[in-house]
Amino acid sequence: MSDNFWEHVDQYRKLGFDPLRWLPTCSNEIDTHILKSALAEVKRSSVKVSPSWFDSFYHIDGKMPELTRRVYSLTNAVVDKEVEVKRALAMFRVHTGAGEYATLLSEALQNFLKVFSAKVSVSCASAVLTEHPDAQFGMLDYIELHRGDKVGYMPGVTSATQVTDVTRAPDADIHSNIAMTSAIELLNLLGCGVQSSFKLFPVYDAPSEEILDRIRSNLDAFTSRYNLAMEDYSSLKIGKLFYGSSAMASTTKELPTRYDQIEEGMEIIITNKFGGLPAMSLYTLARMDSENIIKYEQNSMSFSDITEARDEVLKNLSEPHFALGKIVAKYCPDFGAPFDKNAHIAAVHPVGPWGLFALGSLAELANAHLMVNELPIRNEEMARFATKEFLVENATASLNGCHLIVATRDAAGSIIEDFKKHNFAPERIGIVAKKGVASIAFTKDISQFVASKAKVARLTA
Questions:
Q1: In a domain, 254, yes or no
Q2: I need a surface site. Which of 80, 103, 286, 289 has the fewest CB within 10 A?
Q3: Are residues 236 and 378 in the same domain?
Q4: What is the pLDDT of residue 2?
Q5: Phi and psi for 33 in degrees, rounded to 5?
Q6: Once rounded to an integer, what is the mean pLDDT over residues 5-18?
Q7: Does 280 share its domain with 375?
Q8: Is residue 253 part of a domain?
Q9: Contact in structure between 129 and 30 (CB atoms under 8 Å)
């Protein structure tokens, strides 16, 4: 590819991809508040979508669940023969005209889901935005379970490439690597730490066979490098560039998602500092307009430091961290064994591009008031600057390896020590102050890292 940044951008757009759409939010995903509000308004649909960050299936001894993929036009879905399976993972790609507004998104999803008559439950759904109306789609990955002896769990997740390195070719391996690593990260957080138990189901597309062949080669190289199983269901056949993945993995432990057993006085741990993703935005903005480099340096930030931070982001997002799964599994009871609050993790929750807004989701799941006393931020001066200049909406948008853990004080000490041994930087950031009401109080001023006053008000209401 040419060194001309805007030539790169034009190449992506001609392929039906939006290479800069993620810049203000550090993610291509639809705002979770908008998605939940929209789905809550979907009525009289046989497909029930209750968005969570994962879905959980039983692991049957000696058997793998069967995945059946169906891809539809989001605006004109034609269902010839429905799959008679009760549960599915889902992924939606929605035009920005609808995806940025809960009412319009609800109408779009209602119109899509109404064509189905078979009852299906979806607990894990990814939804991403596109500026190309003809790039929209709805995908259902039906998961069929087998009868047999239950020996553990097999969680399922979906993910899409959340940021784009526009300096690389549209078919570069970094894009598919980020999508698959994101899915692996979520499974690791659930305590799936054995690489041989992972299975990836890539979600990809492009308008030419030449690009599709390169994407397939990239997928093969990634899964071979980490010794991971993959099932390729071919491209989406929409004809627009896309990168994502569904994934499953097994664990013989109980899952660390006992949100209903979170108690007053339990501690909230962050496994790594919030933030990091804004460096990617600052770097890309500098490539868009070199005047931004002058502005950075006037605020005591060198472009070389921003470039170094951006390189760290790309390395972090594209290389799996299996140590995370092993640490979490260590603090989960064996499958079927009782939970000991003084020895085990009560609950985990990913942070990712949501940053400190993940605390809001945790508070809702636990139905608890969280008191947050510390707010460790990676590249803190960059984060403040990006917020002050309204360059990034949420400067706490975080890298892989940044997650929330809830545990008693007795368990927290050894959990923190184990994370430190594996190059994490865990910290206690707060406590569960009260049960019975979902809310958060911060002792630090979060407005210095979040540009939207409305979102700050909603989080702390």
A1: no
A2: 80
A3: no
A4: 39
A5: -65, -45
A6: 95
A7: yes
A8: no
A9: yes
Domain enclosing residue 143, as ranges: 5-248
For 44-61, b where at least 16 C-beta lie within 10 A, e where not — what string?
ebebebebebbbebbbbe
In a domain, 110, yes or no: yes
Does the pLDDT at position 1 exceed 70? no
Helix 102-113 vs helix 32-40: crossing angle, to nearest 10: 50
Q: Are strands 150-153 and 156-160 parallel, antiparallel or unpaired?
A: unpaired
Which of 295, 324, 457 lies closest to 382 in space, CA to CA? Answer: 295
CB atoms within 10 A of CB 277: 33
Quick: pLDDT tens for 28-74. Answer: 999 999 999 999 999 889 999 988 999 999 988 888 888 999 999 99
DSSP 365-394: HHTEEEEE----BTTHHHHHHHHHTTS-SB
DSSP conformational letter for 31: P
Whether 266 and 208 share a structural domain: no
User: Sign of the CA dihedral 54, 56, 61, 64?
Assistant: negative
Q: What are phi and psi of 90, to 5 degrees?
A: -140, 155
How many folded domains does the chain comprise? 2
- As a dihedral over the C-alpha atoms of residue 399, residue 247, residue 177, residue 347, rounded to 10 degrees, the angle is 10
Cβ(151)–Cβ(61) under 8 Å? yes
Q: Is residue 70 classed as helix, strand or coil in its secondary structure?
A: strand
User: For the segment 355-386, what is each residue's pLDDT rounded down to a tens digit?
Assistant: 999 999 999 999 999 999 999 999 999 999 99
**Domain end call among 213, 248, 283:** 248
